[in-house]
Amino acid sequence: MVLKEAFRYQNFLANLFDAAEDSLLDRDHCLRTIKTHYKNKANPDIESEDIEIVTVPEFFANDQVIAFIVWLIAEREKLAIAISQAKEFVATEQGFDLDAAIESNKYRQKAAKAIQTMLSHKGAVRKERGTDYRFNLEGTQVSYYYDIDTKTEEAYDRESAKATQKELSSAADKTSTQIDTLMVTTEVDYAPPYDVNDSFDEVMSDFIKTHINN
C-alpha cells in the first residue's frame, strides 16, 4: 500500500479500537444475571433451576474483545513503524520531511487566508450627522446639526500584504502538490489483515475464527 492508503488504514484501526472499547465498557457486556429458582423447596418433585436473564442481544464476549484489543495495539504499532520507515526513506532519498511539510503548509494556508480576509477590509469615507447645542438670541439653548466626514484608512501596507499573501499561497500550492504526489507514490511495507471497508462485526468474527478458535 502507499502512504495515503496507510493513513486511511490507521483511521480504520482506530475506529476498530473505539468500537472494541465501547463493547468492553458496556455494563451489560460485563455482567450476567442468573436467577436460581429453588422450586424443590416448595415442591420436592421438581428440581431447582438456574435461569440466565438475557438483557441485551447477542454480543462478542469480553474475553474475546480483550484479546482483539491486545492484537489491535500490536497491529497499529506495526503499521506506525512501517509508515515511519516510509517517511524516513522519503527524507533520505528526496530530502523532503513529510511531517514538517504538512505542518508548515497548514500554517501557510491559514496565514494566506487571514491576510486575504484582512485585504477585504478597505478604507472608505462616509457622511454622518452630528448634533450640538447653542444659545439663541433669546438665551434659550437649542440644538443644531452639522455634517461629519468619517474616513477609515487601511492600517497596513496593502501592496506588501498582497505580495506576501500571493507568495504564501503559491508556496502552499507547490508543497501540497509535492505532498499529494508522495502520498500516492511512496510505498509502505505493510500487509493489511482486513479490508478497510470491513465492519467491526466482520473483523471480530474473523478474528475469533482465525486467532481464538484455532
Q: Percentage of helical residues?
A: 55-70%
Spans of at least 5 consecutive residues with low confidence: none
Order of helices and strands: HHEHEHHEEHH
Strand order of the largest sheet: 1-2
Helical/strand content category: alpha+beta
Mean pLDDT: 92
The CA-CA distance between the termini, in Å, is: 28 Å
Number of domains: 1
Biggest sheet details: 2 strands, antiparallel
Radius of gyration: 35 Å
Shape descriptor reads: flat
Strand content: 15-25%
Number of H/I helices: 7
The count of β-strands is 4
Report on this structure.
The chain has helices spanning 3-25, 27-30, 39-42, 62-94, 98-119, 158-185, 200-212; strands at residues 33-37, 49-53, 124-135, 141-152. By secondary structure, it is α+β, with helices and mostly antiparallel strands. The protein has one domain (3-119, 156-212). The strands form 2 sheets. It has a two-stranded antiparallel ribbon with strand order 1-2. Helix 1 (3-25) runs antiparallel to helix 4, helix 4 (62-94) crosses helix 7 and helix 5 (98-119) runs antiparallel to helix 6. The chain is flat and about 120 Å long. It starts with a helix and ends with a helix.
